[in-house]
Design goal:
Helix content: over 70%
Distance between the termini: 43 Å
Largest sheet: none
CATH class of the largest domain: Mainly Alpha
CATH superfamily of the largest domain: Uncharacterised protein YqeY/AIM41, N-terminal domain
Shape: globular
Number of strands: 0
Number of helices: 7
CATH topology of the largest domain: Hypothetical Protein Yqey, Chain: A, domain1
Strand content: under 5%
CATH architecture of the largest domain: Orthogonal Bundle
Number of domains: 2
Radius of gyration: 18 Å
Order of helices and strands: HHHHHHH
């Protein structure tokens, strides 16, 4: 089942279960996908859906940091709840040794020799593992491996 169909199915289930938080998040995701469809003037692809999910998750993470910095734990908790719903639809993130192995593979794949090749490595990594890597963590790992 495609990710978009899964979102629609879960939206209907959440409506029936009267799960207001999940309904609100899924409604927002559906609206973002509809906006993208209108903007691109074509049906959204599975990659488009994944990109929207990643973007929305990133926005929630940034909001949590900002709310905590501003002393608004209540709003940070709301954002954390929304983030949990969104993360349920994202593929498992690469971390630790898995991320390190993926970075090594991409470095070898593009033939990177030093820090000047970081952009090429990051591009290859983000294309190959779209939605599965955190840009900041990947950037730090690539930088560290290219400097050694």
């Amino acid at each position: 089942m495609s990710l978009q169909k899964q979102l629609e199915k879960d939206y209907i289930s959440a409506l029936k279960a009267k799960d207001q938080e999940k309904v609100a998040v899924l409604r927002m995701l559906k609206a973002a996908l509809k906006n993208l469809q209108v903007q691109k003037r074509r049906d959204v692809t599975e990659q488009d859906v994944l990109d929207v999910l990643v973007k929305q998750a990133k926005q929630r993470q940034d909001s949590i940091v900002q709310f905590l910095a501003g002393g608004r734990q209540d709003l940070a908790d709301v954002e954390a709840g929304e983030l949990a719903v969104i993360k349920a639809y994202l593929p498992e993130q690469l971390e630790g040794e898995d991320l390190e192995a993926a970075v090594r593979d991409c470095i070898a794949e593009v033939g990177a020799k030093g820090p000047q090749d970081m952009g090429r490595v990051m591009k290859a990594l983000l294309e190959k593992y779209s939605g599965r890597v955190d840009g900041k963590a990947a950037s730090a790992m690539v930088r560290r491996q290219l400097l050694t």
